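Schema walkthrough. Field components (list of strings):
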Amino acid sequence: MTKHILILPGDGIGPEIVAEAVKILTYLRDTAGLAITMEEAPVGGAAIDATGVPLPDATLDLALQADAVLLGAVGGPKWEPLPIAIRPEKGLLGLRDQLELFANLRPAILYPQLAAASSLKPELVAGLDILIVRELTGGIYFGQPRGVTTGEDGTRTGVNTLVYSESEIRRICETAFDIARQRNRRVCSVDKANILECTELWRTVATEVGTEYPDVTLSHMYVDNAAMQLIREPKQFDVMVTTNMFGDILSDAAAMLTGSIGMLPSASLDATGKGMYEPIHGSAPNIAGQDIANPLATILSVAMMLRYSLGEPTAAERIEHAVSTVLDQGLRTADIMSPGMRRGGTAEMGDAVVVAMDSQV
Ligand code: NAD
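Field assembly_structure (string):
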């Protein structure tokens, strides 16, 4: 059955890096029989310029109908003076909300060829391949009551509420276990069950879900220890599953272990496996339009899309293998350049990945 992909280039380097990802999809469609259609729409600042709002109804309708969404990045100085309610970032948040994308998948992968880019010793991180599964629509970022109140004596009190229902915990844990089955079959659930009752329930439900996956090994870790272990011995992890706030913090720390923001993809999934795929970096307005942005995070986001939403794991592996081949050949964009390597631009990198895929056949 033909799958429909909505392409949202966005702002800054978004259109440049998305164009390279589209090259990969086009190659797979035209030469490997991948049954897809692609349609493009504006979001973020580009949508504000075209329609006055960051998420036009027409874009949202297309996103709701699509099987998967590929997003570049949104935002930039041009739109910063606008009120927060109509800034480009609202387009992204609106899509996450309307598509009910509750599972955020953030891999921290370090290709051995780039091990020198990490702030950790190469032997600790070379070949690192962790996937953090972060709950995205619940927890303390959304819990009620929230806000700042002022008492009769003028003293201000701030409150936020950490709340998770059993069903919210269950579905994110099931997502993590399902994905672990496609990887090394290990899940580490991260909580603060020694202090927070809410995450005591998290641990209980994670354990219950674990009994339904006897082929996957489940471990538990307190979040403070998890932060320490990520820096001490990151390769001990396969899949980590955790709450919205813990995941927000741990996934940024894990990403930075790799030292290369231009290399990391991400996915946000709904309950049916439909997802939005995007690089973890922003729109990098400082380098937009210069053909120097690294398109590999976006290209690797396409690999995630093929694996998690389109049921095409072999095509996903072809892309990942081709990226590795191109790095072996010594081609580097400016952000991952090192002595002895050959520097290339955004389009050259995309073309090289296509050539590497073509030579696999
Ligand atoms: P950024 O990720 O855009 O850039 C940070 C640094 O990394 C910059 O020096 C940039 O040049 C570099 N960089 C980022 N991606 C790169 C790539 N592919 N290749 C080479 N270098 C790359 O973060 P920022 O500067 O804080 O934000 C810029 C804009 O992006 C802001 O408007 C922000 O709101 C927006 N933003 C959007 C998203 C998103 O769309 N998901 C995420 C983060 C930031």
